Amino acid sequence: MSLLEVLRTAVFALRGNWLRSALTSLGVIIGIAAVIVMVSVGQGTRSEIDKLVSGLGSNRLDIMPNTRRAAGGVRMSASSFYTLTSRDAEAIREEIPEVQYVGGVLRGNTQVVFAENNWAAGWQGVQPDWFELESWGLALGEGFESRDYGGSTKAVILGETVRRELFGEEDPVGQSIRLGRVPFTVAGVLEPKGQGGWGQDQDDVVLVPLETARRRLMGAMGLPPGAVQQIAVGVTRAEDLDYVQEQIEALLRQRHAIQPGAEDDFRVRNIAEIVATRTQTTRLMSLLLAAVATISLVVGGIGIMNIMLVSVTERIREIGLRMAVGAGPSDIRRQFLAEAMLISLIGGALGIAIGVVGALLVGRFGALPVVVDLKVVGLAAGFSVATGLFFGYYPARKASQLDPIEALRQQ
Amino acid sequence: MSRAAVVDSRAAVIETHALGKVYSPGTEAEVVALRGVDLCIRHGEFVAIMGPSGSGKSTLMNLLGCLDTPTAGRYLCNGVDVATLDAEQLAVLRRDTIGFVFQGFNLLPRMTALENVAMPMAYTGIAGAERVERARQALESVGLGSRESHRPSELSGGQQQRVAIARALINRAPVLLADEPTGALDSRTGEEILALFRQLRDSGHTVVLITHDAEVAAHADRTYVMHDGELHLEGASA
C-alpha cells in the first residue's frame, strides 16, 4: 500500500467519525500550543539575556548606592542617595590590581537644543574608561580630550538618536548645542547601538565628562562633593569577578566606615545576578507551561490510544475482511498507525497555529519577551508526530495481530 | 496474476494431502476438526463442500482460504505449500489466489459499490486510474454497471452479493471461495447468484462453494460431504 493510499484510507476512516476525531485531537492541540508558548518565552528570555550580557560584558561589576527607604516613603536627604564618590572609584583602581577599568557615572535628563530643534534626552556624566566599560566607540569626531575631563570645558558626545533628531543630514561635530541652558560643543557621535536588553533605545543619550556634568548639569541639586550615582568596574579576567567583588565590598566598607553587621550603604551587582533575576521571572512560567504541555500531550496521547482501541474493536470485521482480501499484518498496522498519527498531526497543526498566536499575544500584552522561530514549530510538529506514533502503536499492533477468522466471525 | 482462463485447465489449483487440523492440541479442550482430508480441485471446476455445522467444513474453508494453517498434512494452494508461509506471505497468497464471498456480504457500509469492489486493489501495486477501470468492468460483469455509486444500504441483498462477488474477482484470483453465499438471500435471488457462479465457472474460474444445503450444492459439478472432520465424495451430479 502506497503512502498516499494509506493516508487516503486514514482520512476516509477519520471523516466517518469526524467529531470524535476532533475531540480526540484536543489534548494534542493544547499540548502543542503549550509547547510553542513555552519554548517561545524561553527563547525570548534567552535572547534578551544574551543581548544584556553582550551589552554589558561578562567581566563587569556595577556598584550602586544601597538606598534605604524610610517608612512611609519619607523623602530622604540627597546625601543618603549619593553614598558613592569619585574617590571611591579612584581607591578601587589603586587598591585592587585585578581591576582594569573604573568609571563613575552621573545621570539625568535634559532638553537638548540645536537651532530650532530640540529633543528630550538622558545625559550621562562619564569618565575616560566609560568607552571601554561599555565597549562603545565613536562614529564621528574625536571625542573628549583629556582636558575635557577636568571640568572646565563644555564638550558633549551625542548618541545616534539625538544626532538624527537635532542635525538630520548636517555634520554635528564642532556645532554648538545647549543642554538645558548651558551651551556645549559637539565633540563626537557614538556608534549606533540600537535597542538594549530591556527594549529601550540606547542611542537616545548624550555624554558629557563627569566633572562637567557635576558642575554644569547637577550644580543646583546640592550633591555631596565628588558624588557619583554609580561606579562601573571592568575586571581584567572574568574568572576574578567574584574575588574582585569581595575586594570591592571590603574596601568600600572600610572607606565608608561600616561596622561589622551593619547594612552596607552600597550594593555591588554583577552580570550573573542580573541574568539570574531575569531568568527567574520566566522560569516559573516555563515550568508551568512545560507541565501543561507534558500533561496535555500524555493525556492527549492516551485519548488517541483509547479512541484507536475503540476503533479497532468497532471495525474488527473490516479488519478481518481486509485481511481476507489480501492485507497483511503490516498493512493493517500501517493503516491504524496512520490514523493515530493523522489525529495527532491535525492536532499538532492546530496547536501550532494557536500556540504561535498565543505566544505573540504573550509577547504583545504580557511582560515577557517572546521569540517565535521555525525551530519551535519544527519541534512542536516533531512532538505531535511522536505522540501519535507512541500512543498509536499499541492499538495498531493489536489490530494487526487479529486472527482474520475470529475477526470475520465478530458481529 | 495471469487470468484464470489461460491457465492449463487440468492443473490442480487446490490440492490437499492427508490434511488435518487439531485445535488446542495436548489439552483437555483438544478438538480434532479435520482428519486426513485429500482433496484435489482443478482449474475451472465448480465444487461444493457440504456438511452440517460442526462437521469441520468451516475449518476446511479457513484452511483452503489460507486464513489458517493445517496441523497435519499438506496443502498446496496454486502449487504453494502454505505451511512454509508466514502471516504476510499468506496475505499475499490470499490476495493473488483466493476471492472470498461471504454469507453476510461483508461490504464496507461507508463505501460505494465501486469503492467496495476496488478496495482489495489497495494492497496491490495497481495504479489508481486502472483500479477504477477494473472495478467498473468487474461490476458490469456481475450485471451492476449502473449501480456503481450506490452504497450497500441502497442495494438489495442479491445486488450486495453481486458486489461482493465482483470484489472477489477484482484481483483476478483463480479461486472463488464462497461460504454459504445464498444463506442470506431468498431462494430466487439465491438461484441467480448460483447461476452467476456457473457462468464464472464457464469463463474459467474455479468455484468452491461451502454450504449445508443439498439443493444449493446440487448446482456444483461435484459435491463433497464433510462428516466428523472427514471428507467424502458424493455421487457426481454433473
Characteristics of this structure?
heterodimer, A: 411 residues, alpha+beta, 2 domains, 6-stranded mixed beta barrel, two-stranded antiparallel sheet, 13 helices, elongated, B: 238 residues, alpha/beta, Rossmann fold, 6-stranded mixed sheet, 4-stranded antiparallel sheet, 30% helix, disordered N terminus
Any overview of this molecule?
The complex is a heterodimer of chains A (411) and B (238). With 411 residues, chain A is α+β, with helices and mostly antiparallel strands. Chain A has 13 helices and twelve strands. Chain A folds into two domains: 3-52 and 276-409, no CATH class; 67-264, no CATH class. In chain A, 55% of the residues lie in helices and 18% in strands. The mean pLDDT of chain A is 86. By secondary structure, chain B is of the alpha/beta class. Chain B has one domain: Rossmann fold (3-Layer(aba) Sandwich). Chain B is 30% helix and 26% strand. Chain B is built from seven helices and ten strands. In chain B, a hairpin with a 2-residue loop joins β9 (222-227) and β10 (230-233). The A-B interface holds A 1, 5, 9, 12, 16, 317-318, 320-331, 404-405, 408 and B 62, 65, 67-68, 87-88, 90-92, 94-96, 100, 102, 106, 108, 110, 119-120, 122-124, 167, 171.
